[in-house]
Structure formats: C-alpha cells, structure tokens
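Re: the request from the purification team.
They wanted to know what the chain is likely to look like in 3D before they choose a buffer screen. I agreed to run a prediction and write the result into the notebook, where they can find it.
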Amino acid sequence: MNANQTRKKVTIALFVATFLAAIEGTIVSTAMPSITGELEGIRQYSWIISIYLLATVITTPIYGKLSDLYGRKKMFIVGALIFLAGSMLSGVAQTMNQLIWFRALQGLGAGALTTIPYTIIADLYPFEQRAKVQGWMSSIWGIAGISGPLFGGLLVDYISWRAIFYMNLPFGIAAIYLLATSLMETLEKKKRHIDYAGIITFTIGMFSFLYVMTLIRDEEGGGTSAIGIIIGLFAVSVLFFAWFARIERHSPEPIIPFQLFRNRVISMANLDSFLLCVINVVVIFYLPLWIQGVYGKPATYSGLAMIPLSVAWPLGSILAGNWITRKGLRFIAVAGSCFLLAGSIGFATMTATTPLALFVPYTFLAGLSFGLSLTSLTVAVSSAVGWELRGSAVASNNFIRTLGQTIGITIFGLLLHTGSAGQIEPNVLAESLHTIFVGVAALSVLVVIVSLSMPVLKHAEQQQRNVS
C-alpha cells in the first residue's frame, strides 16, 4: 500500500470519528423528549447534555498532552474505545441516573475525538495540503449541525432513541480499524513522566468551575443555599487552578505547557477562538428563540431559518482551506471577522416587525464567518509549533473554544428575560434579546480588532519555532 492510499484511509477514519463527536450534541438534543418520557426524568433533563460537555472539556487538553507523549494512534484508540463503551451503555440505560453516568463516560472518550484528529492531520500533511484537509474537517461540524436533528428525529420516530447511541458502534469500530492498520508512528523509547498531579488538580478545578456555570444558568438556582454552593464551588475552582498553575510550572511534562502562550500566533488565535465561540453559541441558541418567542412561529421555522448558517459554515471552511496558501491566514481571519460583524449588526437591528427573509443573509454571513475564521485559526495553531507540542497546542485551542461556549451561554443567559409567571411575553423577550444581540455586535468589533492583530503569516509553517 503506497503512502497516498495509507493517508487517505487514515483521513477517512478521522473524518468518521470527528463526525460522531460533532453529531452527538444535536442528535441527543432531538431525542431528549423521548428519553425523559421513557425514563421519567424531566428534572434531570439538562444533565444529560451538561455532563457530556463537562467530561469532554476536562479531557481535551489531557488527551492532547498524552498524544504528544505516547503517540496519536494509541491515545486516539483509547479515547475511541471509551467513547464507544459509553455509547453502548447509554443505549441500555434503564434510569436517568444510569444514563447520566454513561454519558459522562462517553464524554471522557469524546475529548480524544474532538482533538487528536486535527493533530494527526497536521502531522500527515504539508502546510499547503493541510489547510484544505482541515477545512474539510471543520466543515464536518456544520454538516453535523444540519443532519443531526433530521437523522435523530428519524431514528426516534421509526426505531428508538436508543438507536442514536448504538449507531456509533459500527462507525466507531470501522474508524479504529482503519487508523490502527494504516497509521504508522515511530516514538523515541524513553521513560516518560505523567503529570498525575496536574491531571487531578485540573480536573477538580475545571469540574467545579463548569458546575458553577451550570448552576448559574439553572433557572431554579436562585435560593440562598444555591448561592452558597456557587460561592463555595467557585472558591474551590480558584484554589485548584492556582495549585494547578504551580504544578505546571515545575512539571517536566506539563499537561498544558504555559510556554505555548508565549507564542504570539497561539495566544492571538486562542483569544480570537474564544470570542468567536462566545458569539457562536449565542447565535445558535438565541436566534431560534427569537423566531419562536417573538414571531410566534413553530419550531419548523426555526430550523429553516438556521439552514443558511449550517450551509455557509462548511462552505466557509472549504473556502478557507483553498485560500489559505494564496491569501494567508491573517487575511482569512480578518475577512471572517468582517463577515461576522456585518451579520451581527443585522441581528442587533432586528425588531418584532423585521421580515423573516432578512434572517437568510444575516445567518449566512455568520455561518460563513465561523467557517473561514475557525478553520484558519486551527491551521495557525497546528502550524505554529513542532510535533512534540502540536497535540497540546491543538488541544488548548479546542479547550478554549468549548470554554468560550460555556461562558458565553451563561453570561448572556443572565441577560435573558422571557416575562413573568413562566409565560413568554414577546415584547419582554424581544427587548432582552435585542440587548443580547447588541452585546454580540460589540464583541464582533473586538473580534475584528484581534484578527487584525494576528501576525502576518502567509505560510505559517515557515514560522514554526519550538517555543522556549
């Protein structure tokens, strides 16, 4: 088997694994009414999704570092097997508590599927080809956004909600087989240090912080006892993060090498990614709410209004992959930020009488921006360091993106007001959403500024340096 055939097989395996991780959020959300109906756990509704995200966020940088130490293939297979075990157990869950624990296990494996594929692509392909392949990889998230609700609805309606978990097994096994038999790695054999103290302190600190975010977002968390828990957990997170930072500064193999952030490409790309993902989650969650709550349209209209975003995102990713070598990473990032600013200004000027047709150009511009910007930033981060730090660099970027989404939905959620007595009042909702979208427009201006501050890198690989 020649090198090109081998590389194609590995790439297909990575595409499949990324798709499984990407579709998991949207497809499970579609099935939640059926799941809570059968397992009688409506009060635990949010934890089915939250626990999965918590586990994924926590393990993302850990897998990135371990892949630098022990190889991409080994850690990918470990993560994929954990993900599949969690999927299988979730499919057989008989109670909501069981499903929550099994979803946590699934998330522990998903951290590998969301990070290591980007790192392997960066290892396999030279810069000119890497940009195109990572563009296709990024477009998978947009495709999953389109197909997840539709596919999930079909499985729930015609088979069972359990099928959404079982379907991961054949595709996941095929991906593992292709990667195991096609990807060849050579690692220097030496005794390797595992930063157990860093892993433990980071896990406790991050879980406490994200749990605080979940409690703040929870509508029922307004009592005195809840406030006490929030303050206590926040104090725990600060304490363990401080301890984690001290450990990392002295560890010979830190989980998150802080010297990465001395690299201007990585630091600016991470800041840009954080802001983009804050905006991204607000747009995805609150535009459908505007359509249903302010316009009074059914859920079908929300799905239709979001199609331009879901189509433009993969289009932007593909265009970025094709343009990066000709236009440069900074040009693509700036162009994406300008499209985002235009779309955000459109959202900020909406009123209850704005025609629904205007959602098409606004959401299209937002989707195009996410595709262009996030793809170019992924390429920038993966090209800014050598092999030995690439896994950690990509993992740090993915971690910061997910953190941006978590913080974004929490902070802007505090500005959301739907009315009194549990009833949606369109005028009240429209006013609060207008405030939120004005905030999004202001953040978009900041994204433009940060993008303009990116180093001029037409060929990022020429700028590779081992950070000191």
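For the purification team: The radius of gyration is 22 Å.
Please add any questions underneath this entry.
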